[in-house]
Amino acid sequence: MAFDLLTGDRHHQPPGASGDRMSDHRTRIALEESQRLERKHQELLEQTSERNTPAERIRIWERRHGLTLPRDSNHRLLAIVACQTDLALDQVREEQQRRLARVNAQAEGIPTAASCGVT
Questions:
Q1: 65-106 per-position pLDDT tens digit
Q2: Quick one: DSSP state of residue 119?
Q3: What is the span of the domain harbouring residue 95?
Q4: Distances 57 to 49, 73, 99, 110 between C-alpha atoms, Å
Q5: What dihedral angle (degrees, nearest 10) is formed by the CA atoms of 36, 39, 45, 50?
Q6: Does 8 map to a domain?
Q7: In a domain, 62, yes or no
Q8: Does residue 90 sit within a domain?
Q9: Is residue 11 within a helix (H) or strand (E), and if so which, with residue range?
Q10: Is 118 domain-assigned?
Q11: What are the pLDDT digits (tens) for 4-37?
């Protein structure tokens, strides 16, 4: 027997109703976990896909790990980024230099392609 808080009525639950809710909940949780793992796998594939530019691959890596590309050109993390994105270390350093040039230009007030709406 169950109590309905809105109406104040007592009513009988159909047999197995609470078990069905638990089963539905477990099924939904399992489905959400499966979808999360699929998204993670898809991001991993995109991180190394040759269809993506080095900049895109590095941004995917950064998003997945919650980190940004270090500014130090000798930082040990650059080799890890290169390995996990299937890029050459020189390609990672080129992206690093491109970002640094953009930051320096913005600091000096020089318009960049990105600030002009050009990508």
A1: 999 999 999 999 999 999 999 999 999 999 999 999 998 888
A2: -
A3: 16-107
A4: 8, 18, 14, 27
A5: -160
A6: no
A7: yes
A8: yes
A9: strand 10-11
A10: no
A11: 666 666 655 555 556 688 889 999 999 999 999 9
